[in-house]
Amino acid sequence: MPMIQCENVSFCYDTENIDEKNAAVKNINFSVERGSFVAILGRNGSGKSTLAKLLNGILVPNSGRVLVEGMDTAEDENLIPIRKKVGMVFQNPDNQLVSNIVEEDIAFGPENLGIDPAEIRKRVDRALEIVNMTAFKKHAPHKLSGGQKQRVAIAGILAMKPECILFDESTSMLDPQGRAEIMQTIRKLNREENITVVIITHFMNEAAMADRVVVMDQGSIVRDGTPREIFSQVSFLHSIGLDVPQVTELLHLLSEDPALSGAVSFPEGVMDEEEAAEWIVKLFKARKNGCTAI
Ligand code: ADP
Ligand code: MG
Hints:
- It contains 11 helices and 10 strands.
- The chain is an alpha/beta fold and 294 residues long.
């Protein structure tokens, strides 16, 4: 059974006027496998946040259904078990922190779930360890850096022992260092803690870290594949207002340059800097040898 399954899911914010035309999410069929790391891409307004909220029952579909480990999000009695299983981290860490002391902040979620205080203590310590913030447990959250605040917010979710975490543009308000910290944390949650991860991002190099990339446009899923399969389609992505990682773009431009034609046939969808560098070295060698094809 998948962790999360969407069957013909549509959602419209305007409940008086439910119609395919003004639906934010249209007829989505998609599932998230347990243990996977999925990235969702799409320009502003394409329905990514709406889909994320449908995945953990914050929103309920107008038609179709969403199942979290077989539990329908439309059934009221499933809501608490679903929220325990699927956590969500948002864009702005300041809106997610509620207490003046880091460890109290992290304890807030499990306290609301009515968990035993001794168990909460263990969970808070473990969550701090996972996000590498143990040294800050007595600190005031508002004095931390953006990346540190976001890691505290993640620890607060971890303390509820979720099996899946949805990250809705959780790095977009951070500086490059904060972004790197969060991506490193997310990767660790997936690889070492076996947490299923769904990230929504507009940073292509973050999407490249996932096992699978889902592309949305105008409320629909328009592509679903490995990062390499998706980033091979540079012209398509440009046509729906998206970029590809910079190295991918660079090799794509070189492959299209008539002056270099025939020198090297660059593969599409290269995301790795070292792999790109190898191809550029091949290009230099080919040029030196008078542009014979290699
Ligand atoms: P994304 O996260 O990809 O930017 P959203 O899911 O936020 O996209 O939005 C999808 C569509 O739904 C957009 O047309 C947006 O204007 C609309 N929308 C989003 N949130 C609301 C809301 N709370 N009320 C009404 N319309 C909304
Ligand atoms: Mg959004």
